[in-house]
Amino acid sequence: MIKVIGAGLAGSEAAWYLACRGEEVELVEQKPSRRSPAHTGNAFCELVCSNSLKSDDVYGNACGLLKEELRQLGSVTMEAAELTRVPAGGALAVDRDKFSAYVTQKLVSHPNIHIVCREQTELPEEGIVATGPLTDGALYDAIGRRFGGGLHFYDATAPVVTAESVDTAHTFTGDRYGRGTGDYVNCPLTKAEYEAFVTELVAAEKVTLRDFEKREIFEGCMPVEVMASRGKDALRFGTFKPVGLADEAGKRPYAVLQLRRENAEGTLLGLVGCQTNLKFGEQKRVFGLIPALKNAVFERYGVMHRNTFLDSPDVLNADFSVKDAPMLFFAGQITGVEGYVESAMSGLLAAMHFLRKRQGKSVSVPEDTSVCGALSRYISAPNKHFQPMNANYGILRGLDERDKKEKKRLMAERALAEIARFKAEYGA
Known about the structure:
The chain is built from 12 helices and 17 strands. It is an alpha+beta fold. It folds into 2 domains: 2-153 and 306-426, FAD/NAD(P)-binding domain (3-Layer(bba) Sandwich); 160-302, Elongation Factor Tu (Ef-tu), domain 3 (Beta Barrel), CATH 2.40.30. The strands form 4 sheets. Strands 6-2-1-7-17-16 form a 6-stranded mixed β-sheet, covered by helices on one side. Strands 10-11-12-13-9-14 form a 6-stranded antiparallel β-sheet. The chain has a 3-stranded antiparallel β-sheet with strand order 3-5-4.
């Protein structure tokens, strides 16, 4: 029986792939007996930070391309995302609860998956460890003893408000550059409103973190107050940028906060890009300075938590196996891939490689012409300053083409051809 530890995105992908190929899987998950500080439910594959899986543009965005690569490889989380998606313009966003429930039902109902609800305290001799970036307790200590400690950075989540509490007299619907079907609720700010908001945001009281250091904040999940502290216009050129948006009168606002559906019914709205470490009372006060959110009811406040990842270049091979233990694999954000889709990718590939080794067959990592291959190689390549990495064109093998749109299209076609080759080789 193959042991998979952790039922997040990576662990769920791994367990599903192996079970569907006739393998008996023991899926060890600590919920519901124990949860990390960031988790709120008992279902598997819980999305903690956001309900968005980012862009769904296969030919214009690296994360969109990665999604298509995973669809080609039979990803269960991509299947779940398609069936539980909510309107989000060019992004693939999902109803969190339905997404998790769908994957959970798939796993618990599979006859080859045997779920054990307990905390794992030691590293196994072989199997797939996918306990995520919030790994702590005895297992964290065991990993530290085995590999000489770990690395970490700080991650943050954004607040969620009830849709009915948003003042629609101060909003307009629409997607940036008209892409989508009016899926975002836009909260415009005048110059005076924006500057007042930024002033209070930067000065607001924050939660004190032990051993917190600014350098440990991951850029991809930068708290909005940290971003704002970089300059009064930092948000206007980032999260609050008004480019591509216009109100009913056709006028572009000075700055805009966007709200995105958190569930299919549209009763909950997330503050896009507003990950924060402000104290709860301060979140209500400061975000309440935005006219549309003056009387907003917060269903969930933003929080910050520590994320752990391995020094993977010293620890892991490109197939996600441990360098001195070829049948012990790691998967998910603990390996240094950053993001929901990237985490799912690592779980799926780890399972594919694990099964190949178990069957006595050779392992072949996808080429770096694909996003799957580029990320696999990134986490294992020598790097004295290793940091988590998400899907981006910069890690893919270069292409000599000056036209940006044409280059991305050609890179996508090249990537999907490589995934087709890899899939055929593995018989996936």
